[in-house]
C-alpha cells in the first residue's frame, strides 16, 4: 500500500536538498559523454566518480549516480545511430534501425526518437517501481536458480528469432557465445578454454568483444566512403528535424509503453539488465508488427522499442537493489558501493524503515528524466555534427577510442587483443549470415547460466525433474517450447498458404 505520509516526507526531502539538484545535471552530462564514447561504458563512469559521493549526503549521492546511469542510457544511442557502434551494450538493438535511418539521411529524426523514447522509458520504469516496488520484490524472491537458468535460455531463443530465416544459425551463434562467455575459471574452480594461459583465468573482456563484433565489420565498410551520410543535404544538423522525431515518438505511445513495461520487468531480474531488455523489446516489436520485414531497414518503431526498454530497465534494476539489497547489474553494483560508503544496507528492512528516502529516490529520478529531455536536446546539437566530419578523420579517432577503451577495462593488452579477435570473428559471421547479436547475448549470459545450472544441479542432486516440479520454472519451460516451435509452425503455415494460392 502507498504510504501518503512517506510520500509527503519525500517531497519535503527533495525540496530541502538543493545539493542534489546541483549534482543531477552534472551527472546527466557525465553519463551522456561516457555513453557516446565507445568502450567507456556507464559503469566505468559511475566507478570513476563513486569516490566523490563520499562527500555528499546519501540522497544526493544516489541521485548523482542514477543521473550518470540515465544519461548514459541515452548517450549510448548516439554512436549506435550515427556509426553503428553501440556506445553501451544497452544500445545494441538501437543499431538495427537507427543506423539505417542515418544512412538514409534521417539521423536527426532517429536521435529525436531515441531521446523521446529514453525520456518516457525512464519515467515508465520509475513510475512502475513506485507502484509495484513491494509486491515485485516478493515475486523476485521466488525466482531460484532453475528459473534464472530458464530465463537466460529463453532470452537466447528470443534473440535467435530476430535472425528470421536464419533462426538456427542464431541458436548456433548463441551457443558459441556461451562457450566463449564461460572461458576461464568456473564457479566450481575448473579452468576451461584457457589454453594454459594465466591471462585467460578471468575469461574474456566482454565489452571489448562486443565492440569488436559489432563495430569492426561496419568500420571496414565505412572505409570505402567519404562520409557516414553520402547525401550532402542530408548531413545538415537541424533541431527542427530532431524535434520532429521527438514528437513523432509520442504518436507511437503504445510502442513506448510496451517497451517501457518489458524493460522494467526484465530489469527486475538480477543479472539480466538493460542489454537483454532492449533486445527482447525489439524482438517483441518485430514479431508483433504488421510489417516485420521493415525492421532492420530504418523502421522508427525499432528505435523506439529498443530505447524505451533499455531506459526503463534502470527503474526495474533498482528493485533488486532497494528491495533485496543485491545488485541487478554492473551499474547497481556500484550504487551498492555508495550504500556501503554511507553505512546504508539495502533490503526489505531498508524500505520499511526509510520509505521517505525510497520515494525521494524514485521522485528524484522522475524529475531527472524530464531534465534529460532538455539537456539531451542541447547535447545532440553538438553530438550530431559527427555526420559532417569526413570519415578519413573520423575512423582513426573511433579506432583509437575503441582500442583505448578496451585497454582501460583490463589495464593490459588482453582488451585490445580481444577486440581484434572479435573484430575478425564479426567479419566472418557477417559474411556467412550468422547474427553477431546472438553471440553477444551468449557471451553476456554465459557465466550466469553456468552458475545457475550448477546451483540447480546441487539443489536437486542431479534430478532434473526440479524444472517441472516448480510452477514458475514449468511455465517458463512451456514458453521456451513455444519460442522454439513457433518459427517452425509459422514457416509451415506460410508455405501451406503459398501452395494454396498457387493452386488457385
Secondary structure blueprint with pairings:
Layout lengths: L3 H12 L2 H19 L5 H8 L8 H18 L1 H7 L8 H12 L3 H34 L4 H16 L6 H15 L2 E2 L5 E2 L13 H17 L16 H11 L3 H15 L5 H16 L11 H25 L5 H12 L6 H6 L1 H29 L7 H20 L3 H18 L4 H25 L5 H4 L1 H33 L1
Antiparallel strand pairs: 1-2
Q: What's the gist of this structure?
A:
This protein is mainly alpha-helical and 504 residues long.
Q: Count of helices?
A: 22
Given as residue ranges, the uncertain stretches (5+ residues, pLDDT < 50) are none
Helix content: over 70%
As laid out across the biggest beta sheet, the strand order is 1-2
Domain unit count: 1
Radius of gyration based on Cα positions: 22 Å
The largest sheet is: 2 strands, antiparallel
Order of helices and strands: HHHHHHHHHEEHHHHHHHHHHHHH
Mean pLDDT: 77
Total beta-strand segments: 2
Terminal Cα span: 61 Å
**Strand-residue proportion:** under 5%
Sheet/helix structural class: mainly alpha
The backbone outline, from C-alpha atoms, is globular
Structural notes for this entry:
- The chain has one domain.
- The chain has 504 residues and is an all-alpha fold.
- The longest helix has 34 residues, at 107-140.
- The chain has 22 helices and two strands.
- Helices cover 74% and strands 1% of the residues.
- Strands 1-2 form a two-stranded antiparallel ribbon.
- β1 (184-185) and β2 (191-192) form a beta hairpin.
Tag the structure with descriptive keywords:
504 residues, mainly alpha, two-stranded antiparallel ribbon, 22 helices, 74% helix, globular
